[in-house]
Amino acid sequence: MSLPYNVGVTLYASFTATINAVTYVFNSASLTQPTNQFQVTDESNVPSGLALTAGWATGTAEIQVNASADQQDLRGYTFATTQFDGTSRTFVITDQSPSISKENVRTCSISYTEVTGLS
Amino acid sequence: MTSIVDQIPGYREAVAAEERRRLLAFVAVNEDLCGLQVKPMTLGHIITLSAIRNAFVEGMEPRISDVLQVLTILHPHYETDRKKARKEAIKAILKTGGMVAAQQIQGFIREALADLPGSSDDSEKAGKWAWPATLVDMLASEYGWTEAEIFSCPVKRALQYMRVITRRHDPKAILVNESDTVKASWLEKLNTPK
């Protein structure tokens, strides 16, 4: 039986996305689409069934903004990307590293989880 | 989805120039500065210039004496014949003009230090040691180089080694490229309210 979902990391090319009305460049963005496994056992605790469902897609990216932009706590904000097939996906930022600045560049790492039902 | 390289004017060229600059750092030849053949800038040069409070490394407005100091210290004969080094440096300044020489030196130093790491926004304001100590510690502990060897290594190479070591220890370490400034300028236009 083949797995119904991709398991592993999808590497994205650099792209731009808007977070809280500020445009960022996303470098080295990755996305992991895990699979959840549900096991069912009978009354003797012998495995009797298995179901696979898609887990929450999570990812990390190094993001860059102009240093003159307001420094923000990005946790809890969302951003949307459009895949090559035209599908739009929305993610919520769950973690953010301290930022590094050099000249007019400010950059930090973020972690995110895909959300559904938001546009 | 359009690639960032194609989306940002000048970014592709900046990346190509950066790759070339980094590769040329490993060519073991003297460099041209104000029409003078000079040694590639080393950590030792920077420390010497800092010690005499040279304006180019102290971030101050340079005077003609600062220009002369840089060209003399970088001269290949500085260690063996300082009189000759100084004489040729003066000649180069007279030929180039003080203002142009100062601009060229600024560009030379900027290029040499282009791979310096960025600073953490939440780091303590009072440092615990001078930044060259970090470079010496990294290269000595990773490669077993002596302090003298590190001081005489062109800083363009030393800073690239520092990046490699940083990334090897932490694959997610943030490294800011000089070409990122092109992206930042482009983002600044996008993010500035009209």
Describe this structure as you would to a colleague.
- The complex is a heterodimer of chains A (119) and B (194).
- By secondary structure, chain A is mainly β.
- In chain A, 0% of the residues lie in helices and 60% in strands.
- Chain A contains no helices and ten strands.
- In chain A, strands 1, 2, 3, 6, 7, 8, 9 and 10 form an eight-stranded antiparallel sheet that branches.
- The two termini of chain A are 34 Å apart.
- With 194 residues, chain B is mainly α.
- In chain B, 60% of the residues lie in helices and 4% in strands.
- Chain B has a two-stranded antiparallel ribbon with strand order 1-2.
- In chain B, strand 1 (31-33) and strand 2 form a beta hairpin.
- Chain B starts with a helix and ends with a helix.
- Classes of the chains: A mainly beta (119), B mainly alpha (194).
- Chains A and B meet through strand 3, strand 6, strand 9 and strand 10 of A and helix 1, strand 3 and helix 11 of B.
- Strand 9 (100-102) of chain A pairs antiparallel with strand 3 (119-120) of chain B, so a sheet runs across the interface.
Condensed summary:
Chain A has 119 residues and is mainly β. Chain A contains no helices and ten strands. The two termini of chain A are 34 Å apart.
Structural class of chain A: mainly beta
Shape of chain B: globular
Q: Indicate the mean pLDDT of chain B.
A: 92
Number of strands of chain B: 3
C-alpha Rg of chain A, in Å? Answer: 18 Å
Low-confidence stretches of chain A: 1-5
Q: How is the main sheet of chain B built?
A: 2 strands, antiparallel
The helical percent of chain A reads under 10%
